[in-house]
Design a protein that fits this description.
It holds the Pfam family EF-hand_7. One of its GO terms (molecular function) is calcium ion binding. Keywords: Calcium, Membrane, Metal-binding, Transmembrane, Transmembrane helix. One of its GO terms (cellular component) is membrane. The structure is a single chain. The protein is α+β, with helices and mostly antiparallel strands and about 575 residues long. It contains 17 helices and ten strands. A hairpin with a 7-residue loop joins β7 and β8. The protein is extended and about 95 Å long. About 20% of the residues are buried.
Length: about 575
Amino acid sequence: MNNLLFPGQGNAQSFSRQASPYKGISRAGRDDQYQQDNDPNRLMLRETGAGVGAETMQKALSKDREYERILSQLRTEFSRIDINRDGTISIDEIIRFLNEQTNGTVDTGIAEQIFAELDDDGSGTIMLEEFIQNYFDRQKIIKERITQIEEDTKVHYESREKLIQKLKEQRMKERLNAYGIDDDAILSVRIIEARDLTPMDITGKADPYCVLKLGGQTQKSNFIKQELNPVWNEVFTFDVDTGKEIMEIEVYDKDDFGTDDFEGQLSFDLVDFVDQAPHDLWFELSGKNPNQKWQGKIRLVIQYVFSKTKMLTGYINMWSEQIENSEAELKELRAILKHMESPFGFIQGFHMKPEVGKGAQEGEDGKQEPVYDLPPQMVQRIEKLEQHEKALEARIDLVANTFAQRAGYNSVPWFSLTWYLLWLYTAITCLVMFMRPDYFNLTICTTALYMMFNTDRITKLRFKMLTFGIFITIIYDLIWFFLKHGEYSEEPKTDGSGEIRIRRFSLMMSYASFLLRFFVALVFWKDSLDFAKIIQNKEDVEVKQEKKDTGPKNKGIFLRSQIR
């Protein structure tokens, strides 16, 4: 059977090299192993190489037995599915078997897909040899994918660790100027190519080149002879002082006997690239007169680096996300592999795709947002809104971090700031309620406090809903001020108990709460964008606190072990 299914035993050899599922041994087994490893006769055989063949043979025998066990299990499963006992499996038998396993809830489409994958020769029936071969093929694919992910994840960990070390070094030496950007801030512009330039020569061609200008700095590219679709692929670097500069690029046609002809121009603001990532973009060229029709476009790769600390942090977060996705995929692949080893797991697990499953992640952390089947137009609007959000966030970060640097921080501690503002908001709301029933704001405060104490139980969407709720309270207070301001500010006829002072105090606190809520809403909106970082920040704080609490105890144990 082995030679029939796997000619030359190549596949059997390949399978035998896989790791054995039996990993554990008893204490007695470890003692016996220790005696065997230190046996003088075995040591001599190992040193001379004479014992290697026996040990290799023993391992090969163990793997061959495992191989035979799987073959026996596959034959049993095949026999179970082959209801009419004709030595083949049909699509009807597959559906009937899956219905038995799922209590009649099998999807016919999935059953047909499984059958098509098993029926290699397209004969409409599945032979035992096809059934067995498919098992080992699928197992091999999954194991190879697991190995690849493990290797990639190791590289990702190493890359992230190197970036973390660079980040620590950069934080020590980074100095921001009065505009909140690094003294070594740079703008990198790679001019890739241009298309459809205007012909300027009598030959119907052009000799185009580019002139780049930024804050008094000017650089020029090489010119390309006789080309309307030139390819430069040149990189230019500019020093940036304020971050408010505008890059201007002009394209000319080089003329040997006169003034160079104008081909077109473009400009862009550095503020549009504060995410510090490289952007590969096409720009339409325009004439000197905005109303003049022009032709031609140019492709640029733009990267504005104004804070290496932020750039490194972004790359670290990117690697962390990649590692998280890889580990989730590994977890699912191993689950599929384990499921295949169970009785009838091969055929049931055929529809389990070796991909990162959203359901697995949801079950693990419960933080995944619900996915809805939205119309394409709605999806496009949401994507545009998210792009505007990111651009606005980048600008806010730029301004906020400038103030943070002046206050002695590397960046704005948004998570801590959220706590301070929330406690202040709650305290002012309680003061307001001395004379004014303000249960709306009190409800928002209570909800926000619950969310901050239980960030591991909530989602990013709820942070945005809370922001929306705060804006509703602002509208509510505007209406309340319009209706109740006169009542709370006028003097009553009698003030024997100091009611006028309490009412005015409550009104003043209402105004203070009203103004404060604009900042609270802004911070919670920022938190909704940085939700993953908030979770990580909380976990880091808990880990540090745990280490702080357990540090002396662990140290004592270590010292006692040294004394022994």
